[in-house]
Design brief:
The chain is an all-alpha fold. It contains 40 helices and 3 strands. The radius of gyration is 36 Å and the shape is globular. The two termini are about 70 Å apart. Keywords: Cytoplasm, Nucleus, Protein transport, Repeat, Transport. Its main location: cytoplasm. It is found in: Cytoplasm; Nucleus. This is Importin-5-like.
């Protein structure tokens, strides 16, 4: 016992954040013999008193041992020890209370079973084929092809054991799990034998239901048939006539309350078989099946809220819609009422103190979130699955019937839009994909009706893009919004929409790059390892996926507005350019794939009548030069003359034009610095020097001063002039930059400029010449710079 406790301490120390403790523990663990390790690890997993994290670590280590060192460890164990290991694992699968630990034990068993298949494909662990174990999530086990036939044979043999109905039910449940995860190509070779056995069992169990009233196994067999058909798809056509008469008989006659689950599962089975075999094969029975469903639907309002038939019916109707296509429209008046009622379920929520929460339990259908301060938020989850299914079915009808669904679009939109704020069930939020589908349905009623519907959606969608915390749901909303823009076209967004959306899109970009910096910092941390990298990679993939949705929205906007962009209000044009400025700056060369949407408008915008638009365009040219990469090179030949034209226009220094002009000056500097091969630098430099300093845009001023330092430090003859004759002018530029606070003592640029001044200071005559060119304010500015930088 003491040794086992020491081992638990060792497992805990393997997770210790202190590197020294963890390293010592790893070294100690490596010295333990293989058989002893297995014994201790198994005992830790099965010990109910062990801490959860200890059990998890033990499970991870045991699976790793069987994966990486199986040949070295397992064959050398005594036969009774090997048997004990297998027995312990199977017992753990059955009795483990924690679903997390149970899943890990299943993974261990799957790893062991994989290693216990010999070169001829023979399974050396036949007990693993027991249906009780197969109903657990041993999916890794099923990945080995040679086990399929053994698994199916074992399950069918057990299902035919009439003496033990519960074991039969277990076997049927295991077959459902098996066929749901089984690839179609691997199931087909065994399909005929599997289907024939299922038919024999179904007939026997149907007789048993009639004679004795027992239904448990028949429920599972019906679901097994549905699962096989769903996987086999068109390959199930030859067996259709074998099952359909019996299934229709069950739906028609299983009307007693205690048989409602069987009836619901049979309705599901019929609809799945119909979907699998296709319309042509199913149509002779379609009318009779629809009448059975209609009869059930007519009685829908009389069904109790917890009647299991409800969810099966809702899903079955949607499958029938997929099968029948436009012919299904005639049934909508019967279907839609109950469906909308289910989709409109409002969950019961409550704010509870600790005492109230203790009086309620999750068994009563409540789930709780601790809010601190002795309070919890509770939600009654009963009905939410049905609500999610109903919302999914509404999407299905809109998608399949299109304009045939138009009568119901308004009420569905009024139901769906408020769900953007529904935080209680992610599957419900995922159905936001219906928005563009509903618009497509509504289009048949004309542009005015369509526009009214869009206005009802638009604000809510934009707000959700800015506030939705779940990345999966957010991506759905963004994708839906982009599709809506494409469908609605030019004019669907107003200035307020552009402004709000622009802020949100920029925020998404900034969040991504901030997250990238955080991830890079974590990679430098002392605790960084492969597991951390895996997590960071997942986070990065998630971020990048959201960025693709940002691109989808931008793509849809610029595609829809491309023809009319020059005629949009200046705020719209500026918004679009600013978004693409950010994309060029942050996405670097990969931004070029969107160039077809913005490059031509950006060139045109350099001469726009609005200074705000000119400024955004000039900034874009600058970041293009700095971050854009090789693909943008041809653009600079066109852009630089346009920039020079703006700078040299008579009113370029007027107050309203100053920021735009200074961004043009900075953009010219960035082209000369980062893409000198694209322009004649020597011709432009004298002009550029005469345009300095920048006094309004402080951020761009830093870029120009840094470039000026580059040129001076490299003794550029054009900038310095013959015999340094340009230095007095440079001193004036620097002094004015200090006076206008474009240069601040604490930044790196100011230190570089101060060093230039100090170098001149040591040559007396030149220093006197430069200082004498300055007025009193400028002289003080130079002295302040020397004192602070």
């Amino acid at each position: 016992m003491a040794e086992q406790q020491q081992f638990y301490l060792l497992l805990s120390n393997l997770m210790n954040p202190d590197n020294t403790v963890r390293k010592q523990s790893e070294e100690t663990y490596d010295t333990i013999p293989g058989q002893t390790k297995i014994s201790f690890l198994l005992q830790a997993i099965r010990d109910a008193s062990a801490a959860e994290e200890v059990k998890q670590m033990a499970a991870v280590l045991l699976r790793r041992l069987l994966s990486s060192s199986f040949e070295e460890v397992y064959p050398s164990l005594a036969i009774d020890v090997q048997t004990a290991i297998r027995t312990e694992l199977l017992a753990g699968i059955q009795s483990e209370g924690s679903s997390n630990i149970r899943k890990k034990v299943c993974d261990i068993a799957a790893e062991l079973s994989r290693n216990l298949i010999d070169d001829d494909g023979n399974n050396q662990w036949p007990e693993i084929l027991n249906p009780v174990w197969l109903s657990c999530p041993l999916k890794v086990l099923f990945s080995h092809c040679s086990l399929y036939l053994q698994v199916i044979s074992a399950l069918l043999q057990t299902m035919e054991d009439q003496s033990n109905p519960r074991v039969q039910a277990h076997a049927a449940a295991a077959l459902i799990n098996f066929t749901e995860d089984c690839p179609k190509t691997l199931l087909i070779p065994y399909l005929d034998s599997l289907v024939q056995h299922l038919h024999v069992i179904m007939v026997a169990k149907l007789q048993e239901l009639i004679q004795k009233g027992t239904k448990l196994v028949l429920e599972q067999v019906v679901t097994s048939i549905a699962s096989v058909a769903d996987t086999a798809e068109e390959k199930f056509v030859p067996y259709y006539d074998l099952f359909m008469p019996s299934l229709k008989h069950i739906v028609e006659n299983a009307v007693q309350k205690e048989l409602r689950l069987l009836r619901g599962k049979t309705i599901e089975c019929i609809s799945l078989i119909g979907l699998a075999v296709g319309k042509e094969k199913f149509m002779p029975d379609a009318s009779a099946v629809m009448q059975l469903l209609l009869k059930t639907q007519t009685d829908f309002n009389d069904l109790e809220d917890d009647d299991p038939q409800i969810s099966y019916m809702i899903s079955a109707w949607a499958r029938m819609c997929k099968i029948l296509g436009k012919e299904f429209q005639q049934y909508l008046p019967v279907v839609m009422g109950p469906l909308m009622k289910t989709a409109s379920i409002k969950p019961e929520v409550a704010l509870l103190d600790t005492q109230d929460m203790e009086n309620m339990s999750e068994d009563d259908g409540w789930e709780f979130v601790n809010l601190g301060d002795q309070q919890s938020f509770g939600i009654k989850t009963a009905g939410l699955e049905e609500k999610a299914t109903a919302c999914q079915m509404l999407v299905c009808y809109a998608k399949e019937l299109k304009e045939g669904f138009v009568e119901y679009t308004e009420q569905v939109v009024k139901l769906m839009v408020p769900l953007l704020k529904f935080y209680f069930h992610d599957d419900i939020l995922h159905e936001i994909s219906s928005m563009p589908l509903l618009l497509e349905c509504a289009r048949v009623r004309g542009p005015e009706y369509l526009t009214q519907m869009w206005h009802f959606m638009c604000d809510a969608l934009i707000k959700s893009i800015g506030t939705e915390p779940d990345s999966d749901v957010l991506s759905e909303i963004m994708h839906s919004f982009a599709k809506c823009i494409e469908l609605m076209g030019d004019g669907c967004l107003n200035n307020e929409h552009f402004e709000e959306l622009g802020g949100i899109m920029k925020g998404k970009l900034e969040e991504h790059f901030k997250n990238q910096e955080v991830r890079q910092a974590k990679r430098q941390d002392e605790d960084y390892d492969e597991q951390v990298e895996e997590t960071l990679q997942d986070e990065d993939d998630n971020d990048v996926y959201i960025l693709t949705k940002v691109s989808d929205i931008l793509h849809s906007i610029f595609s829809s507005y491309r023809e009319k962009c020059p005629h949009r209000p200046w705020a719209d044009r500026q918004w679009g350019l600013c978004i693409f400025d950010d994309i060029i700056e942050h996405c670097s060369p990969s931004s070029f794939k969107y160039a077809e949407y913005f490059l031509r408008p950006m060139m045109q915008a350099l001469c726009d009548t609005s200074p705000e638009v000119r400024q955004a365009a000039a900034y874009g040219v600058g970041v293009m030069a700095q971050f854009g990469g090789e693909s943008y090179r041809p653009a600079f030949t066109e852009a630089v003359p346009l920039l020079v034209g703006v700078i040299q226009s008579p009113d370029s220094r007027a107050k309203e034009n100053a920021n735009a002009t200074e961004n043009c000056i900075s953009a010219v500097a960035k082209v000369m610095k980062y893409r000198p091969e694209c322009v004649s630098v020597n011709e432009i430099l004298p002009h550029w020097l005469s345009w300095l300093p920048l006094n309004e845009d402080k951020e761009e001023a830093v870029h120009t001063f840094n470039y000026l330092c580059d040129l001076i430090e490299s003794n550029n003859p054009i900038v310095l002039g013959p015999d340094n004759t340009n230095l007095p002018k440079i001193f004036i530029i620097i002094a004015d930059g200090v006076v206008n606070e474009s240069i601040k003592g604490e930044d790196g640029c100011s230190k570089r400029l101060a060093n230039v001044i100090r170098q001149v200071q040591v040559s007396g005559g030149l220093w006197t010449q430069c200082v004498s060119a300055l007025n009193e304010t400028q002289q003080k500015a130079i002295q302040d710079l020397l004192n602070t930088a």
